[in-house]
Amino acid sequence: TGDTGQGARTWIKQILNQDMAFQHIKVIYPTAPARPYTPMKGAFSTVWFDRYKISNDCPEHIESIDSMCQRLTDLINDEIKNGIAKNRILIGGFSMGGGMAMHLAYRFHQDLAGVFALSSFLNKDSSVYQALKRNQSVLPELFQCHGTADELVLYSWGEETNKMLKSLGVSASLHTFPNLNHELSRTEIEKLKTWIVKKLPVEAAKTN
């Protein structure tokens, strides 16, 4: 909340002592537009969507989630226009960004390569769950990480999200980080990098 794509990139760079770069994968860090954010008493903040409160036990602010899904779909479509196959696209984020990615992939883009969600959660009656109840297709794999000492987004919320998605047919892993609060750790980013390369291996040269 309140950070930018550039801020996230710098944060990861500080943790790894280098940019999160891959020879064969382009990394994009989008920034959410500023909007009034209810948990901050309506103050403007760069957030992906609004929340009635920071809790997994309230309705989702579906209107703001859906308008952002449309914007981010444009971003995905731009990459496809540039010749990137949709099954070679991964999306994900930290905290709210991970929640956003789960909505985007599991409700609107079930043919993406995968999703990662770091310190994220979905509300108990999330529209993601409703969408998956009606789903028949193979779903993007989920890579989830969560610190057990997280005081903002409780570990149990992340765990519950993982269990729900698994029960609805998502192949989901949950990596637990003891003593980690609402933050990123080096081990976590290294694990994420390994998973990204596994999901998007270097394509073999096409023989004519």
Automatic annotation (TrEMBL):
It is found in: Cytoplasm, Cytosol. Residues 2-198 form the Phospholipase/carboxylesterase/thioesterase domain. It catalyses: S-hexadecanoyl-L-cysteinyl-[protein] + H2O = L-cysteinyl-[protein] + hexadecanoate + H(+). It is an enzyme of class 3 (hydrolase). One of its GO terms (molecular function) is palmitoyl-(protein) hydrolase activity. Its main location: cytoplasm. Its EC number is 3.1.2.22. InterPro entries: AB_hydrolase_fold, LYPA1-2/EST-like, PLipase/COase/thioEstase. The keyword Repeat does not apply. Keywords: Acetylation, Cytoplasm, Hydrolase. GO terms for cellular component: cytosol. Belongs to the AB hydrolase superfamily. AB hydrolase 2 family. Palmitoyl thioesterase that catalyzes depalmitoylation of CGAS and KCNMA1. Acts as a regulator of innate immunity by mediating depalmitoylation of CGAS, thereby preventing CGAS homodimerization and cyclic GMP-AMP synthase activity. Does not exhibit phospholipase nor triacylglycerol lipase activity, able to hydrolyze only short chain substrates due to its shallow active site. This is Lysophospholipase-like protein 1. The lineage of its organism: Eukaryota, Metazoa, Chordata, Craniata, Vertebrata. The gene is Lyplal1.
